[in-house]
Specification:
It is built from 10 helices and no strands. The chain is an all-alpha fold and 208 residues long. Helix 5 packs across helix 7. The N and C termini lie far apart (63 Å). Keywords: DNA-binding. It holds the Pfam family TetR_N.
Length: 208
């Protein structure tokens, strides 16, 4: 049964072009990274996981570094969208409910895709270390643009000077909430943790 499955997978792969196959290659790389760490993601390991030959993988990505770079970009894009859900763009004069619902949305989204968080916040090997961190910087930039009008609507004194610190508080709280959810699954669920962290972040920002 297993050999038949392998043959079938090889047959299907032969009929797919690189553009259609790249998402499958990235899915395989993510699965390997989740199980064994980013260092285990090699062209050969991905080929073995997919039951295809190495040239099939090289047709999609020229080398391991570019494969991992593409994987990180894809997963970071997913995570960034989750962080930005914490404060919807139109909620300029946001109240506590907006923050609570935002953190709940983030945590529910993270719970649906835990491998992405483990990849981004794992320990990359030196060959790909430079690929990490770009997504967080983008999240900081976009959160800054979203939070600036909110602080002005709240009438926060010296808002522009305080803005970078409050953005860092927001983004760090989002990251920490996800880590807490995964580390303490028996104690927290997305709804309860989202309410707790969302309320705390809202109070901290309103009293800034």
């Amino acid at each position: 049964m297993g050999s038949e499955t392998a043959v079938q997978r090889r047959g299907r792969a032969a009929h797919l072009g690189p553009e259609r196959r790249r998402p499958q290659v990235l899915d395989a790389a993510l699965a390997i990274a989740a199980d064994d760490g980013i260092a285990a993601v090699t062209m050969g390991a991905v080929a073995d996981y997919m039951k295809v030959t190495r040239p099939v993988i090289y047709a999609c990505f020229p080398d391991r570094v570019e494969l991992i770079d593409a994987l990180i970009q894809r997963e970071e894009s997913f995570l960034i969208s989750g962080v930005l859900d914490v404060l919807p763009p139109r909620a300029t004069n946001a109240d506590e409910t907006v923050f609570v619902e935002g953190f709940r949305t983030l945590l529910n989204k993270a719970a649906e895709r835990p491998d992405a968080w483990r990849l981004i916040y794992g320990n990359p090997d030196p060959a790909v270390a430079g690929s990490f961190g770009r997504g967080r910087q983008l999240a900081v930039e976009r959160c800054t643009a979203l939070l600036r009008p909110t602080l002005l609507a709240w009438g926060i004194d010296d808002a522009e000077r305080k803005l970078p610190a409050l953005v860092e508080l927001w983004v760090s709280a989002a990251e920490s909430a996800v880590r807490t959810l995964f580390a303490h699954r028996d104690e927290w669920n997305p709804e309860d943790l989202g309410a707790f962290v969302g309320s705390a972040v809202y109070r901290a920002m309103r009293s800034a």
